[in-house]
Every structure is written in structure tokens, then in C-alpha cells.
Amino acid sequence: MNQIFNQIVKQTLDQVEDSPLKNTLCEALASSLTKQQDTLSALLQAKQEGIISQQELDMELEREKDILEAEMLTKQITAKAEVQKLVNDAIQSLSKGLL
């Protein structure tokens, strides 16, 4: 039984290694920030040039933060689905291995 369990653990870890989940959130954050780079740069430049006040900058940065958070939450849902699939596969393999 211990050998079956060890094999299932190894199989599950191999699936995690092969899973897109490993880099999904890091890539999503980098991608989202890259998309927002022009906007963020423009906001900082506008503040430096006195075109917008600190309060306006803070408000716009909060809006950009909300956009980034929404994008990351979408990726989190995708990641959660991947985790659920891996867990289900592991439990199913364990169940079959013990029968």
C-alpha cells in the first residue's frame, strides 16, 4: 500500500510540474502590469509636471489597482480549477490504487 501511495504522490507531483498553474499567476501579473505600463507612466509624468494633484494621482492609481486585481482574480479562478482537477485526479488514483 505504501508503494501505491508513493507512486500516486509522485504522479500527482509530476502533474503539478507539467501544469500551467506553476507560472500562470506570475505571468498574469507581469502581463497585466505591462499592459498598464503606459497608463502608469503617463500618470506619474502628469503628477511630476503638475498637471494632476496628488489626490488625483492617488485616485487614478487606485483605479489601476482595481483593474489589476480584477485581472488577477480571473487568473485565480483558472488556477483554482486546475488545482481542483489535480486533487480530483489524485484522489481518484488513490481510490483505484487501494481497490
Overview of the molecule:
By secondary structure, this protein is mostly helical. It has three helices and no strands. It is rod-shaped, with a radius of gyration of 22 Å. The relative contact order is 0.17. The model has no long low-confidence stretch (mean pLDDT 78).
Task: Tell me the total number of β-strands.
Answer: 0
Query: Biggest β-sheet: count, sense, barrel?
Result: none
- The average pLDDT is 78
Strand-residue proportion: under 5%
By secondary-structure content and strand pairing, the structural class works out as mainly alpha
Order of helices and strands: HHH
> Runs with pLDDT <50, length 5+?
none
Q: Which tags fit this structure?
A:
99 residues; rod-shaped; 91% helix; 3 helices; mainly alpha
Topology:
Layout: H1 2-18, H2 21-48, H3 54-98
Helix pairs in contact: 1-3, 2-3
Kindly summarize this structure in a few lines.
With 99 residues, the protein is mostly helical.
